[in-house]
Write a structure and sequence with these properties.
72% helix, 0% strand, rod-shaped
């Protein structure tokens, strides 16, 4: 049995979980980083003992990289769309009153629904 097999499996599982970066960027980036680290550790352990690198470790590495990329892109898009000076503000005056901020977003969504 490959000595790095447990880490390779964990890397694969965390790489798959990192694809949740579509829904939660923080989970995607954190799980992606851990998947990459475990993958590298698994490959180094296997090669040090003369075993070939496990395919699960390679898949975990690739999925971890994709998960980080998706998480970062999702975070940037979220900031652009919902940030304080994002795409939906249309030059409105910003105020500290949260009710005017909510009405600004509602007006933006009405604009989108109209076409």
């Amino acid at each position: 049995m490959n000595p790095g097999s447990g880490k390779a499996t964990a890397s694969l599982v965390l790489g798959i979980i990192s694809l949740i970066g579509i829904c939660s960027p923080i989970i995607g980036v954190v799980c992606g980083i851990v998947a990459i680290v475990l993958s590298r550790m698994s490959v180094k352990e296997s090669q040090a003992l003369g075993f070939p690198a496990d395919g699960k470790a390679k898949a975990g590495l690739i999925l971890g990289i994709i998960g980080i990329a998706i998480g970062v892109v999702n975070y940037i898009v979220t900031l652009l769309l919902y940030g304080s000076k994002g795409l939906f503000d249309y030059g409105e005056e910003s105020s500290s009153d949260s009710s005017s901020e909510v009405s600004g977003y509602a007006a933006s969504f009405k604009y989108l629904l109209r076409g």
